[in-house]
Amino acid sequence: MTLQAGVVAVQGDVAEHVTAIERAAETHGRDVEVREIRESGLVPDCDFLAMPGGESTTISRLLHDDGIAPEIQDHVAAGKPLFATCAGLIVAAADTGDERVDELELLDVTVERNAFGRQKDSFEAPLDVAGLADDEPFPAVFIRAPAIADAGSAEVLATWDGRPVAVRDGPVVGTSFHPELTPDSRIHGLAFFENDEAALPASESA
Amino acid sequence: MAETTDLEELRRGTDLIKRGFAQMQKGGVIMDVVNPEQARIAEDAGAVAVMALEAVPADIRKRGGVARMADPADVEEIVNEVSIPVMGKARIGHTKEAQILESVGVDMIDESEVLTPADDAYHIDKRDFTAPFVCGARNLGEALRRIEEGAAMIRTKGEAGTGDVNQAVHHQRTIKGEIRQLEGMKHEEREAYAREIEAPAELVHETAEMGRLPVVNFAAGGIATPADAALMMHHECDGIFVGSGIFGAENPPVMGEAIVEAVNNWDEPDELAEISKNLGKGMKGDANVDLPEEEKLQDRGV
Fold first, then answer.
1. What's the gap in Å between the CA of A100 and the closest CA on chain B?
2. Residues in the active site (chain B) (predicted)?
3. Cβ–Cβ contact A47 with B under 8 A
4. Which domain holds residue A140?
5. Closest approach of chain A CAs to the CA of B195, in angstroms?
6. How far apart are the first and last CA of chain B?
7. Between the N and C ends of chain A, which has fewer C-beta atoms within 10 Å?
8. Do A52 and A88 contact (CB within 8 A), yes or no?
9. Is B277 annotated in the active site?
10. Which tens digits make up the pLDDT trace of A142-200?
């Protein structure tokens, strides 16, 4: 069967996630149809979802205005996979300590916005991430990135300078950095196709 | 759990990071502001970033004289006021203004024709900076020259401060039309085309293969209403800069929010109709056709 994927597309680097999902699906031998979610009514048809990077204040506001927010919450409550990067992680978090963001509380972590500084402090570096297909470090790109101040009950998959930057909490995987900006789609694969705690329709051959 | 990775392998200011920053702005509205109060209004309205400047283009136009970088103290105040990225404008070719803006923590520098150019012949060598740059362009040749110099984002020049979207449409149509033309060309034809438009051949080939500019492409210059913003998204822009259109309007918070929603719903006419209702008076503006050649800002820095 062809899996239905959705990329939350109210703002941010949507096309990059679409490409990364298609690559990860191909690696895992799954057919996928990816759609961009800019209005309510589409999320219930999706087997898995990505929330992109962008500006968390803008994304959070539009998700609530457009009625997409409760649909994403239902998606996660049903145990379906969700992968959130950077601003997506901020919006998905339980708490940001910032009234400008209306959190979706999809994973039990507290996030600190812009924890690594402004754009001139943005950086890329090889990062060890637990559970990746091989042991090669991941080329992580941090852009005005948040850090996870308190991982709560979530499993920490990677840390940078002592701070958690990738976590998994049930069906939800979140990263402070942007795997969608690089050709390496291993973390997309991990989040969507290799997460035992998430429910994904089995392929026909399985 | 994985071990902490080697901090020494960290790199800053790479093309990936600069262009990546611009990619995070996609689908968003970047608003011109002149003080922290306006910056807060813009952030609350859903702006993805603010452009900190001393006066909006419509006022620069009225006032005349030399237009320069804003006072760094004022830019710093705006940087400290909001959580979203702050951009600042430097004069074309003014490396020192750009360095000062970078030093006060500006997240992206706009090397802008709205200010009086500091250099007749050269733009800033943007590759030397850690901060990413956005530059204006009227056509593909200009856009690719700016990318070659290190620009991480291209915006149409339009005709800033007029409230007339005509030139932004013209520039975006020109760039997209030239790219479509390129896609149909053979390798050697592209080489000749690169010479004709005075653009680096390598970037011409890259653009042809991607079917779009290699960096994010925003619209700017004369966008004054939600419908204008939606029109630029219809012309395949990645996002919108609004200058005088928000704080030159009667009710800036309402106009700002409406433009953000219009970008999000650009292909939904019924939504656009609702969004466009009861916004109060827009900026007055000046039609481009009435503008004498010498008052046009778009011919600066080609």
1. 8
2. 89
3. no
4. 2-193
5. 31
6. 53
7. C
8. yes
9. no
10. 999 999 999 999 999 999 999 999 999 999 999 999 999 999 999 999 999 999 999 99
